[in-house]
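Please produce the structure of this protein holding zinc ion.
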Amino acid sequence: MLTRWWQSRTLARERRRYCRSDWRAARAALPLLAGLSDEQDGRLADLALRFLRDKRLEAVQGLQLTAQMRLIIGLQAALPVLELGLDWYRGWYALILYPAEFVPAREYVDADGLVWVDDAVKSGEAWEQGPVILSWADVAAGRTLDGYNVVLHELAHKLDMRDGAANGRPPLHAGMSGQSWTQAFTAAYADLNRRAAAGNATLIDPYGAESPAEFFAVVSEAFFEVPGLLNAEYPAVYSQLRAFYRQDPLARLGAGARPGNR
Ligand SMILES: [Zn+2]
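Below is the modeled complex.
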């Protein structure tokens, strides 16, 4: 009882942070929310508030986090779990925001005991049982429907990690076939790898050819932003993601959404 009382009180406090113009501006910045029914839109807003209450948003390197920026992140974070529930994001607590791309410069030890420094420039990261890290410049650039969305990308990794290390396959719902999932994803991943290796232009971000985990994150971005394109390229993958996310962005957004300039 006490927990429920506390939760509703902290939720009310979170709600008071935002005025109507913050909500309006955040929604206007997110065309990927187009086509949601009033009922879905209401649930999305509620989930976004709960997400923002439960996770600690931490801006670093002088970045100033506004109410509107919080909503832009919260609403996008809520979208993938709109029909799954916030429980899918449990087990981690912090979302760290850099002003722009960042270099983690982290040391790690490989299987042979050699120490390496990871100094690649990143727009986002999702740690297993740890924080999600995002570059605000990339979040801001991801507002157009071009299939690139760093919030959806990193949170797709988090969904994938629900059952351990990211391997490109989140825990599937009852009634979904693991075999159908594997067939759809293996064939599409092989195709993207072949085309990327041949240097051919691909409509799906070739970064997805890095690993099955990256492939799942990249096709999740495409699913919500350019569903028509994903469905045309890899219809079996689209249909598996529709079953997993329990949403049909193609019906909602139409086939009109096409990638813009990268
Ligand atoms: Zn990734």
